[in-house]
Amino acid sequence: MLIITITNLDLLASIYNTIFSLFLFLLACIMFYIAKEGYKANNRYGGSSTLVCGILFLVFGFYNLFVGFFPFPFMGFMLWWIGMIFIVYIGFALIIKNVVKKLDKEKPNSENSKNSILKKYVILMTKENPYKKEISFKMEIVRKSFHLFGILFILAYFGFFFLFPISRIINDTLIIFFKEYEWFYGLLWGSVQNYPYSKGDFQAVVDLTLFGLIGALVFAIISEFIRIFWGPEYSIFNFLTKAILRDKEYNAFGAHIYLITGIIFSYMLYFIGIVNILTVTVAVLISCFSDALAALIGRKYGNHKVKCIGGDIKSIEGFIAGTGIAFLIALIVLGPIYALIAAIIFFILDFFPTIIADNLLNPILITIGISISIMLLGLPIGWF
Predict the structure, then answer these.
(1) In terms of domains, do 239 and 331 share one?
(2) Of 51, 113, 186, 290, whose CB has the highest number of CB atoms within 10 Å?
(3) CB-based contacts of 188-194 (< 8 A; 24+ apart in sequence)
(4) Do residues 287 and 259 lie in contact, with contact meaning Cβ atoms separated by under 8 Å?
(5) Residues 288 and 265 placed together within one structural domain of the fold
(6) Which of 237, 271, 305 represents a domain boundary (last residue)?
(7) Residue 1 belongs to a domain
(8) How far is C-alpha 8 from the chain's CA centre?
């Protein structure tokens, strides 16, 4: 059996780590360029939000370079995931490019009922500006459905009633698979005895939850780069969701990128031992559900409008729904005192909108705000 030596494994692990750090640095540099272009296009909101994302990616890159997010061989798994995403996304973009060429050769006013799904999609995305200032309530629901990402975080880290955390299930399954096919593991990563986790290992839950968050960000962000530089019709993510884009997303990322980036930074604070996982959990759930419900209820039932600081027009009904849900979420997890603090932070970020996306600020500032309150007040977390 071919087994890679420990020395070679250490070298391979270092190479994986360095490549991923360089990948994060590259993404940060591209974000700074996109932010600059956003400012040029008078999109201060998108430019500022993308700039902050770039700074956070520098933080991610330096942390991974000097400390490392994942033990060997999981960094290798991440690079394989990135490679597969690139192949699929670039392949889709090239297919769309071919469809665009064919459409350019057809008569401009020709109607073809036999157009393929891809042709109809390209026609839909190119016949008018896909970036809208106002979108329909139905499309708002589609866009806000991405906020269900918070449920995946809960399932990954905590599980659900009698269901073990998904991260633990994945780890235990990998152990069984690698022991069954030990020759395969040995061929690529050395002795299976060097696998970093055991069955039911809690550290695997902590690490693989972060792995899932970063993997989801990579899945979404590469498609966003393609949308920004090539056009929305080339984005497979846009093709799958059929989502209408807001004008704030011109030369800038979509709200889901800001949300996942903010969640990763907040989770990273727990990962390195600065904050409690319950404060992160509350911040994630409030960022995902309070913000979404505030927007949807405000759109559907918001009859009492209010002009926020900064000029945005929102509704009292939306404020009540969002702040109420924020308080309820934190009340269940943290208790009444910290629930009040969490609700106040959410309300401030919602009522005093900045030029930085609240999807990015909510998970970070709610986590930090509650954590500072815990240190200052010294009250126990929860009800007991």
Answers:
(1) no
(2) 290
(3) 188/4, 188/73, 188/76, 189/4, 189/9, 189/12, 189/72, 189/73, 189/76, 190/3, 190/4, 190/5, 190/6, 190/8, 190/9, 191/3, 194/6, 194/9, 194/72
(4) yes
(5) no
(6) 271
(7) no
(8) 34
Q: Would residue 51 count as lying in a domain? A: yes
Phi-psi region of 6 (alpha: psi -120 to 50; beta: other; left: phi over 0): alpha
Interval 21-46: pLDDT, tens: 999 999 999 999 999 988 888 888 88
Contacts of 305 (CB under 8 A, 6+ apart): 313, 314, 315, 316
* Domain co-membership, 209 together with 352: no
Domain that holds residue 156: 6-271
Q: Tell which of 223, 246, 271 closes a domain.
A: 271
Q: How many CA atoms lie within 13 A of 377 on its CB side?
A: 12
Contact by Cβ (8 Å): 315, 298? yes
**122-162: pLDDT as tens digits:** 877 777 677 776 666 666 666 667 777 788 899 999 998 88
Residue 255 included in any domain: yes
Q: What is the pLDDT of residues 177-204, one digit of tens each?
A: 998 888 888 887 878 888 999 999 999 9
